Known about the structure:
- The chain is of the alpha/beta class.
- It has 2 domains: 6-255, 3-Layer(aba) Sandwich (Rossmann fold); 278-433, Rossmann fold, CATH 3.40.50.
- 36% of the residues lie in helices and 21% in strands.
- The strands form 4 sheets. The chain has a 6-stranded mixed sheet with strand order 6-7-8-3-9-10, with helices on both faces.
- The chain is globular, with a radius of gyration of 24 Å.
Amino acid sequence: MSETALEFAAVSFAYRRALALDDVSFRVTPGAMVGLLGPNGAGKSTILKLAAGTLRPSAGRVCLLADEASRLPRREAARRVAMVPQEFTVQFPYSVRQIVEMGRTPRLRLLGTLRSEDHAAVESALATTEIAHLAGRAFQELSGGERQRALLALALAQEGEILLLDEPTAHLDIRWQIETLELLRRLNAERGLTILAALHDLNLAARYFSRLILLNKRVVADGPPSRALERELLASVYGAAVTVGVLGGEEHLSILPPGHTWQGAPSSLDGKSSAPVVHVLAGGGTGALLMRALADAGIPFSAGPLNIGDSDYALAERLAVACIVEPPYAPVSDAGLAAAGEAMRAAGAVLLCPIPLGAGNVALLDLARSAAQSGARVILLEPEAGSMPDREALLARVAARDYSGRGPALYRALLEAGAEIAAMPTQTLDLLTGVRDGLT
Length: 440
C-alpha cells in the first residue's frame, strides 16, 4: 500500500485568468479524515475536482496513490477515488437503485452489464447508508438528507480507496448533518476509507475532523482544530472577528459570531472545573444531540451509567464533567446505580433520553422518579412528542422500546411526579433555562 493516498505538490490552478489556487501543497495518508475549510472562492471545490481528476493543475502535480492523476486514464482514476458533489441533478425519473448502480460504471466491462459482484456492491452500499428501503423510490422524490445518502451510496458502490465530498451537510437540517457525519466517521474507522471533505460549518468540522486545512487560495493552516481554527487566522481568512472557545478538549472547539460571548461556559479549557448542573441518562446514541447541545450552551453535565463502546459513552467521555462507566454489554451494576443516584441528587436536574429499556437498566427510572419526588427537575426527551405531547401516545412509544415489562408504569410514575416532556434538545435547554413554561 502506498504511504500517501493523495498529494498536492506546489499546485496552482486558474479558471481562465482568475487564480483559484496558488502553490498549494499537502499530503493525505491512507485512512485519514481531513476537512477543507475556507470562505467561498477559497479553492475548496477546486481542490476536490483536481483530486478527482476532472481538472488538471496549471502548475505542480496531484498524485493519487503515488501515481500522477493527470496521467491516469479517467476510468482508472474513478476506480481509486469517488466524489460526492454538492449539486446533482437528473433529467429522468431514475430510481435510487439505478442512481447507485451508476457508481459501478468504472468497473463494468465493455458491454456494461452488471455482474454478480456489481449487484453485491450496490446492495452493500444501500445497506451501509441505510437506504435499502428507498431503492425503488424515484431519486427526485427524496428529501435532501435522503438524496445525500443516495449520492454517498453511489460513491461507495465505486469501491474506491479515497472519498471526496463537497459540502456534504449543505442544506440539511441538524439531524441529517449529524447522521451524515457520523456515517462518514464510521466508514473511516471501520473500512479505513480516506476522506477529504469541503465544509462550511466550522463547529461540525472541529467535532468530526482531527485534521483541518484552512484555505484562502493558499494553505493558511494545516493541523488539528486547535491550530487551524485560531481566532487570528479565522479573522484574516473570513474577514470576521469570531470568538473561539474550547469545550472538552481541542476536538470540540466552538465558533461564535462577532459580538457573542460564552454564557455560563466552564471556566477552564478542559471543561472539567464546573460541577454538573444536570445528569443525562442515555445510551445507544439517544443522547448524542442533547449532549452536544448542552456542551455548546456551556451547561456542565454528568452522564451514565454508560457501557464502554457505546457511542454515547464515547461522546460523554469527551464532553461530560463526569461519566459513570460500566463494562461493555454489562447490565448496570449496584455500584453504577448508587453512583447514578448520587449524580442525580447532586445535579438537581435529570434528562432522560429515549433509551431502550431492559432488565439491565430499567432501575434507572426508579432513581429518576425518586429524584423527581425529592424535588429534582426531570425532563423526558421524546423526539416524536411534538409541541403538544400526549401522555398516552408517549407511553405507547415507551412500551415499544420496553423489554422489562416495567417501562410504561415507571414513565407514568415519572409524569405523576412532575416530569416534563421535550421534543427536541433545544426545547430541553429552554425548559432548563426558563425560556418557556414547562410542558406537562
